[in-house]
Amino acid sequence: MRTETKCLHSGYQPKNGEPLAMPIYQSTTYTYDSTDDIGKLFDLAADGHMYSRISNPSVAMVEEKLADLEGGVGALCTSSGQMANLIAVMNIASGGDNVIVDSTIYGGTINLFGVTLERYGVHTTFVDLSLPDEEIQKHIDDRTKAILGETIANPALDVMDIERIANLAHRNGIPLIVDNTFATPFLCRPFEFGADIITHSTTKYLDGHAIQVGGVIIDSGNFDWTNGKFPGLVEPDASYHGVAYVRDFGKAAYITKARVQLMRDLGAYPQAMTAFLLNLGIESLHVRMERHCRNAERVAEYLAAHEKVESVNYPYLKDNRFYPLAQKYLPNGCSGVISFCIKGGKENAVRFMDSLKLAVNVVHVAAARTMVLHPASATHRQLTDEQLVAAGISPGMIRFSVGIENIDDILEDIEQALASV
């Protein structure tokens, strides 16, 4: 099946007489015929659901769909995109290790890794992944466990050169983790360019309607964890009677460990109802993303030609420095998110935003409705001035998430708001 068809049919295929819609298994626990059956679950010697802190049939169907959409061997849904990125790193890094993270990544992720994870002994070095290989290489050492960045950075909109960074990571024996939230598997499939692990905030385009918070980790199954750098995936796990993940689960070693070890202990698993709502969003993903992209292209062109606009950042504009990478990795469009600056700085930016009538001021992005946000005073408020510059954010920057409304209505709303500036 092609991507559009997978959005509807992958994960759950009803049999004769079964419900067309994916069922909601609203249960915390599952019955078995004997204590021996349950014992096999806890030994990881049999498939099945033991408890909904670790797995649930409804969530599992969505995990299967997301793995299929990205071309991976398995997926693990989480309670948020933040938790997806955290578990993705904690699954392979421990105290004394370090990771390389793109400096233009989402502000909440910068705080998660640079402050919270730091307290537990895992150091993060923030590096601009658009720099040449030799500059990035300077920050990699024997304790580096991964490189992490976003396909399309939020809100800087840098486009990662996935193939180049994957090759750099692999030369150092470490995986590349790609947050594919803005692109979605409809616009880009990072595994095809060498990425090893993919994460998403499913709260964004995959949901598409701002009705559930979630995340997902997807494993390509392609990385060699036996190179000596990842003992936790190779050596016996005493908490599971000596299970060795690579030996016992092969290509699914990484995602299995993430579930049965970290999810077991952290308990950040989504609810069955959350999975049901997410699945509804994914079913229309391909239709929505086409409209988001086409609308955003029109808005970007309009803003770029407007006398009151100082600059527009959208990778599909031909003068954008990431235009060549966007054409390579995002041939069908690069999402509906635009960042731009109005002449006059923050004061005029706020006046413009408060004058919008159709677009809504919300702490969200990448949903069906057109949304607007001032990153420096909201999602990235906790960053220092230096970190804001590194993340590509100026005081007057506006993040504009173009929705799927009629494009003329969107443009007319922008026009009347700009008239107030």
3D architecture notes:
It is a single chain. This protein is of the alpha/beta class and 421 residues long. It has 17 helices and twelve strands. The protein has a seven-stranded mixed sheet with strand order 1-7-6-5-4-2-3, with helices on both faces. Strands 8-9-12-11-10 form a five-stranded mixed sheet. α8 links the parallel β5 and β6. The longest helix is centred in the C-terminal third of the chain and has 20 residues. The model has no long low-confidence stretch (mean pLDDT 95).
Secondary structure layout:
Blueprint: H1 3-9, H2 35-42, H3 57-70, E1 74-78, H4 81-90, E2 98-102, H5 107-119, E3 123-127, H6 133-137, E4 144-150, H7 162-171, E5 176-179, H8 184-187, E6 197-201, E7 215-219, H9 231-234, H10 245-249, H11 253-266, H12 272-283, H13 285-304, E8 309-313, H14 323-329, E9 337-342, H15 345-355, E10 360-361, E11 371-373, H16 385-390, E12 397-401, H17 407-419
